[in-house]
Structures are given as structure tokens and as C-alpha cells.
């Protein structure tokens, strides 16, 4: 999908309902950021809210991290594309067959299709937590392996921490999009994130998109917090 927005910032609208999400969107500016709809908001407010945001001029990242059998994920990604979203994602750990099915499902849309992104290792995961889910190799190796699998399966990029961005750019190439949550301006609370990076360091390290939630949505003036981040990365 051709994009109209030059800003790398994607604001995470993690809200309980459509009213709260739209109240926040109204304080933002579609020329200065994109917005992300995740599992909490989509479960509460559904496709109508996504279409409302698209109608208000926002490019929407539908962050539902699909992870299921190939046929189910293909159908879910197709349904997301029909909502007019700019980006949608699946878990890369769902495997090559699943990711290829997702890509094939949106291929008929040509350049109107959304970007299809694979989640590697969540930014809330600390390196020492990987063994508890059965992963014994070091975290950077796990991220690289999943990113490479995503690229070979036809995906447009991955979600990763900006800490891994430099290595992934070398491994997967400049055109492979790196979408990085866990962004925290200097001094901001990490919250439940474990692999955080400042906006400036993230872009310098090779990140293409910065996903920012609470540091913007929890600020006294969200638009000022967004503008401060944009100033930092100018
Ligand atoms: O690895 C991941 C994948 C997705 N997220 C999502 O990004 C935002 C981050 O919000 P903050 O308030 O800035 O922490 C949130 O919606 C997550 O679901 C992620 O953090 N890490």
C-alpha cells in the first residue's frame, strides 16, 4: 500500500473502548503519525473502529499478531486487508507455511495490499525468559532466525526491538521493514517492556517505524509528547 505519511511514529491506541480511542485520535494528527489498533481495542470495538480511524485519515497498523493454522491466518489477513489497514502482522513462529499462506491471501490486492509483518520476539521478553518457552539459543539469534524465515516467506518486515535493528538490516537488507515497539524517551518508565531503546537511538540503529504507546497516550499533552519525539529524531 502506498503511504502518505513520512513520520516513522506509530501511536499505540491501547484503550478499553472506541470512545476513548477516538478521543485520543482526535488529539493526534494523521500527518504526524500513524495509529495502531491492538488486541484490547479490537476485541472491544471491532472492525467498525478500524474503519472509523481509516475514515479520519489515519494509516492503521492492525496489530493482532495472528498465529494459527495457515488457512485460518490467511483468512484473517485477507479480512484485515478488506478493512483498508496499512499494516497487519502474524507471529513468525507460526512458520514458513503459515506466513506464505498469509502473503498469498493478500497478493491479489496488488499494490493496495497492506504491509505484512512478522513478530519475532516480543519486546517485553528479557533474554533470560526465552528458555522458559523452550528456546535455548541466545535472543539475538532467535530474532535473526525468525526474521530470515519471515523474509524468505515473502513478508515485508518484522517486529523486533530496536536493539536488534542493526543486525537485521545487515541480514535482511535495507528494504526489509523493521517495526520497533519498546520505544522510551530518556527517563520514561519502561513499564512491562524489557528491551527498550530511545527514539533517536532506534532510528540511528536502523529501525524504520517506532511504535509508541504510553509515553504519548499517558502524557498530559499527547500531541506535545509526539512532537517532542519527532523533534528528537529530526
Ligand atoms: O514485541 C512487541 C509487539 C507489540 N507491542 C505492542 O506495542 C505497543 C507498545 O506500547 P507501549 O505503551 O509503548 O509499551 C503495545 O500496544 C504492545 O501490544 C510491543 O510492545 N512489543
UniProtKB/TrEMBL annotation:
Q: SUPFAM superfamilies, alphabetically?
A: Ribulose-phoshate binding barrel
State the InterPro entries in the record: Aldolase_TIM, OMPdecase, OMPdecase_AS, OMPdecase_bac, OMPdeCOase_dom, RibuloseP-bd_barrel
Q: What is its EC number?
A: 4.1.1.23
Q: Its pathway?
A: Pyrimidine metabolism; UMP biosynthesis via de novo pathway; UMP from orotate: step 2/2
Q: Where is the Orotidine 5'-phosphate decarboxylase domain?
A: 8-229
The protein's matches in PROSITE patterns, at most eight in alphabetical order, are given as:
OMPDECASE (PS00156)
Keywords of the record, alphabetical order, are: Decarboxylase, Lyase, Pyrimidine biosynthesis
Q: Which chemical reaction does it catalyze? A: orotidine 5'-phosphate + H(+) = UMP + CO2
One cellular component term (GO) for this entry is: cytosol
What does the record give as the function of this protein?
Answer: Catalyzes the decarboxylation of orotidine 5'-monophosphate (OMP) to uridine 5'-monophosphate (UMP).
Q: Enumerate the HAMAP family for this protein.
A: OMPdecase_type1_B
Question: Which PANTHER family does this UniProt record tie to the protein?
Answer: OROTIDINE 5'-PHOSPHATE DECARBOXYLASE
Question: What is the similarity comment for this entry?
Answer: Belongs to the OMP decarboxylase family. Type 1 subfamily.
The record, for NCBIfam families, names: PRK00230.1, pyrF
* Protein name (database record): Orotidine 5'-phosphate decarboxylase
Q: Which organism is it from?
A: Microbulbifer yueqingensis
> What is the gene called?
pyrF
Amino acid at each position: 500500500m502506498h503511504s502518505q505519511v513520512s513520520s516513522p511514529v506509530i501511536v499505540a491506541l491501547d484503550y478499553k473502548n472506541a470512545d476513548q480511542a477516538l478521543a485520543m485520535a482526535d488529539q493526534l494528527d494523521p500527518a504526524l503519525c500513524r495509529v495502531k489498533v491492538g488486541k484490547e481495542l479490537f476485541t472491544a470495538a471491532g472492525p467498525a473502529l478500524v474503519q472509523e480511524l481509516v475514515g479520519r485519515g489515519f494509516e492503521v497498523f492492525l496489530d493482532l499478531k495472528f498465529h494459527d493454522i495457515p488457512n485460518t491466518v490467511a483468512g484473517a489477513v485477507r479480512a484485515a486487508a478488506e478493512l483498508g489497514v496499512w499494516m497487519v502482522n502474524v507471529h513468525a513462529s507460526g512458520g514458513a507455511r503459515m506466513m506464505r499462506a498469509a502473503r498469498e491471501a493478500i497478493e491479489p490486492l496488488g499494490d493496495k495490499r497492506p504491509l505484512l509483518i512478522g513478530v519475532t520476539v516480543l519486546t517485553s521478553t528479557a533474554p533470560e525468559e526465552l528458555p522458559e518457552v523452550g528456546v535455548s539459543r541466545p535472543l539475538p539469534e532467535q530474532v535473526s532466525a525468525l526474521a530470515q524465515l519471515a523474509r524468505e516467506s515473502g513478508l515485508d518486515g518484522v517486529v523486533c526491538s530496536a536493539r536488534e535493528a542493526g543486525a537485521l538490516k545487515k541480514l535482511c537488507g535495507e528494504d526489509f521493514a523493521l517495526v520497533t515497539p519498546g520505544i522510551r524517551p530518556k527517563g520514561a518508565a519502561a513499564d512491562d517492556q524489557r528491551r527498550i531503546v530511545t527514539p533517536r537511538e532506534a532510528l540511528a540503529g536502523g529501525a524504520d517505524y517506532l511504535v509508541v504507546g504510553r509515553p504519548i497516550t499517558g502524557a498530559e499533552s499527547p500531541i506535545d509528547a509526539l512532537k517532542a519525539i519527532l523533534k528528537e529524531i529530526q
